[in-house]
Request: fold
Amino acid sequence: MRRDMLPWNLLGIVVALGAWEIGGRMLGDGLLAPPSSVLAAFPALLRDGMAEALGTAMLQMLVGYACALLVGIPLGVLMGRSRMADRLLHPWLSMLLVTSTAALVPLFILIFGTGMAFCGALVFMASAFYIMLTAYQGARGIDRRLMAVARSFGATRMQAFRMVLLPGLFPYLVTGARVGLVHAIRAMVMAQMFVMVGFGGLIAQSGFDASTAGLLALLVTIMLVSLALNRALDATGHRLAPWYRASKAGH
Amino acid sequence: MSNTPKLELREVSKSFPRASGAPLTVLDRIALSVPDQEFLVILGPSGCGKSTLLKIIDGTEPCTTGTVLLDGADVTGRPGTGRAMVFQGADLLPWQTALGNVMFGLILRGVPKAEARERAMRYLEMVGLTAFADSYPHQLSGGMQQRVGIARALAVEPELLLMDEPFGALDVQTRDLLQEELLRIWERDRKTVVFITHSIEEAIYLGDRIVVMGARPGRIETVLQVPFPRPRRESIRDEPEFRALRRQIWDQLKVGAQAAPDLAGAPA
Reply:
């Protein structure tokens, strides 16, 4: 995001919040709590242990997400560089990519119970294949011309992998990690809502409250956390590789 | 000449098998001898296989038959030794700075980092980019990128410098400027150069000899000596002799194009 866009971004947010405030006051807290009521709901939520629930939820999410990165990236790269691996794995990638994570819930409860393993597994299923797909596309899309340059300068296969392929993959891996993270957080909330535990459990329970203020406060919280993590990943990518954004724009 | 030529091509041919009928010949028995310190230009229409020929010389593309000799040693199909290529679109690594890109070939060849950095800086200075050592390719203009490409090739101190239409993608002013600069660098430290272009003017301005190629199949049509003395001045472009030579080559290229038998020209 460019810096000179910031005032306009803020204006957009302020206008939307204003509309929500007016609409909320007209409809009442029972249907749509206005931002002022949502803000007021936070102290009570924190007293009820929202922060702890969020922390645990994030931990569970991170375990599943880390596994997704560890599995998705190498498999995606392998598929992108080996035709044999592509043939073997592509049908699975295609099928699992479109599988609804929610539909897996009953099966996963049977297998994993309702604890950390269940949540982690669901997060894994929701994010691994997006990460794999982006890594696959990156590995396939590596500039042939750059590989030709490496060959011309006498690079061995190992050198070409380390000095051309891996850095060339980097923007794709960051993009894959970001997309995967969004899916991972969504899956975490959903998983916890199904089994009524943790942060998702709080959301599920607050649906029964007379006021929607608590529910909306939880939604806003998870949205902000998701946004912040995504930004942090983007910034990390940029820090590690200053050319990352430029190459994103270039492709 | 009694000494071994710097580069010698013996009956180099390249053909691709086709599902139906005879194989498609891309290069037909190319024989060429380039003496040490010569600036040789290969000129030809697109599709005559000149880029393929250069890759065969570089060792990155296999040929069907024939031998590539560098200083008398067989280097057919073996890239890396004694040669360095300047690529058409510079083709720099986007994640490396200008300095990092120039160091690339040196690092690949096992030159220690500190020494590679020092040598790379020397060559960046030679192409006038010292101030841009820490810039990334996307921060450089097309002309500057190609200067880095030239420095990258020169830095490995090759016996033979290969240039594949290096200025083809640049605008006219930048192109003229870089041609001049290339001559300045080359005249100071004469290397054997094989330079590919489809621009007749570029060929005459730069080359000692011009190999004119014809297409379908790619073959050597004729070889011309360029009569202008070194160092060359920009002003030779206006001399009548320059224009006459340009005319002569143009006619030659037309003959080559007409001579191409249509039946051999299968769709690519």
In short: The beta strands of chain B are 7-16, 24-34, 39-43, 65-70, 73-74, 83-86, 160-164, 192-197, 209-214, 219-225. Residues 262-268 of chain B have pLDDT under 50 and may be disordered.
